[in-house]
């Protein structure tokens, strides 16, 4: 079974550092996408946190950014966490050089938008941010309408230059500042409505569980189900790798090779003593070919 929760290991870093001649201590860029990771873990920050500038972690199932792990990243400039399970942004405030952050298609709800932007507001170098596909910017999922959500983010992050790939214009920034009081009032109502909706969802889920068929499992687009499916996939990958390694020829060590050579020489010596030779001239006897003429 793979370790749960799965995090970045030293072997995984080495596999992804071929471009740097497998050197880890001075690694500046590493791509660890589609590795079924549930957290960054303590190894990557300690191994190369002081040199890493680009960290690509898209398409994993990372649910939380632990401040204790992130504090070792000193010069990080670009962090890609698209297609993960982030529900709230935290622990990034000390990344003074972070200029680009991708949080596309995560699970940041309207309930945690204010605290997430408060964290991002500490990043004085942040110029480009992607939030597209999060519930907080989707009216159908209890979030803002697209235009209002964009205005709120722009007002809260004055140093930002691009949001979801679109440049923030000067007139847009001025209008966002003018609307901030109204937007903050509206946010309070959205959060209250969202929480009420979540309570109703929990009640319905409990009603569906009671008396439902045991063999019927409903898969929803939520962090918990994504993590469950990811763990199943990680187990399948581990089983496949184990089978592939079992089918590969085993590497012989130096002692094993020496032992085989010693056995071969011993058998040759015995044949010398008994005169039982093979066709090959292994013992280097001198021989001649004679021609016989028959009448």
What does this structure look like?
By secondary structure, this protein is of the alpha/beta class. The chain has a domain at 10-211: Alpha-Beta Horseshoe (Leucine-rich repeat, LRR (right-handed beta-alpha superhelix)). 41% of the residues lie in helices and 6% in strands. The protein is built from 8 helices and 7 strands, in the order αβαβαββαβαββααα. It has helices at 10-15, 43-48, 67-70, 113-120, 146-156, 170-209, 223-247, 254-274; strands at residues 29-31, 54-56, 78-80, 100-102, 128-130, 162-163, 166-167. The protein has a 7-stranded mixed sheet with strand order 1-2-3-4-5-6-7, with no helix packed on it. β6 (162-163) and β7 (166-167) form a beta hairpin. The chain is elongated and about 115 Å long. The protein starts with 9 loop residues before the first helix and ends in a 21-residue tail after the last helix.
What key attributes describe this structure?
295 residues, alpha/beta, Leucine-rich repeat, LRR (right-handed beta-alpha superhelix), 6% strand, elongated
Topology:
Blueprint (H helix, E strand, L loop, with lengths): L9 H6 L13 E3 L11 H6 L5 E3 L10 H4 L7 E3 L19 E3 L10 H8 L7 E3 L15 H11 L5 E2 L2 E2 L2 H40 L13 H25 L6 H21 L21
Parallel strand pairs: 1-2, 2-3, 3-4, 4-5, 5-6
Antiparallel strand pairs: 6-7
